Amino acid sequence: MKKLLSTAACVLLCSACSDDEAGPVRPHTDYQRITLTEVITPIDAQTVSWSQEFRFANGQVTGSSTSQSFGTDEEQFTITLNETVTTTEGEAVVTDDEGTSTTYLLNDYGLATEAIRREAGGDTRFYRFGYTLSGSLHRLQAIEEHLADTLFAQLTFDELPASSSDQWQLTQQVGQYRQTFVLTLTTPLQAASSTSPVPPLFVSELHPLTLHTTALYGKLLGEAWPWVSHAASTAGNSGRRAYSYTFTPEGQLSTCTQSSSEQRTICYQFER
Length: 272
Prior knowledge:
By secondary structure, this protein is mainly beta. The protein has helices at 7-17, 191-195, 201-204, 213-217; strands at residues 33-43, 46-57, 60-71, 76-88, 91-96, 101-106, 112-118, 124-134, 137-147, 150-157, 167-174, 177-188, 227-234, 238-247, 253-259, 263-271.
């Protein structure tokens, strides 16, 4: 798999993970369960609800469940996909109910450096991850996805800005299609950055991260970013999405509302 990777990605990974002088720490989650829920506006008298639950033990992710329910007051249907995480020294394997498995190779900090995803349908995808060291915390800075020895998708993040008044750029390429997004930042998470360790909604829904949701929320791909995003748009300010948040008195993230052509609200719950 290593021969598939670009030199830039390898340099990024090595330079980010070899800086021991700052005293980097291993990712750790202080909750036993993190749950996201969303109720989608009824269509044709059907109420659709979605939930995603991430489970942890001793600070490490152990599994997740994603459910979607739909129907009427008289009859409801639910579809659930479960993922189990098995972690050993230097490796974490995420397996779902449908037979798809992703094997992550972990470095000394418990971060995924490479991954192989074997899908139930027969496709195999290869990944490489790069990180930047911010203080003592590693944060994801690049991910590459290869199909059949060919680079198919990648996502790269600019260096974190110095303050919440700045903008943050990330670039996504899928096939021949490439675009740059600009995130307008707002209030730093401060206490919420430690009490609500979750990635920005916009970032988590970008390919290829959509295929690594459990690893992303489980911190196998580094710590959550320290800022919340007030708005996201493509370069040139088209396709703009605005985000607003509510927090509990303890500083935990409670809701995230996205406003664009349609409005949606994600509710967060953190259980110790």
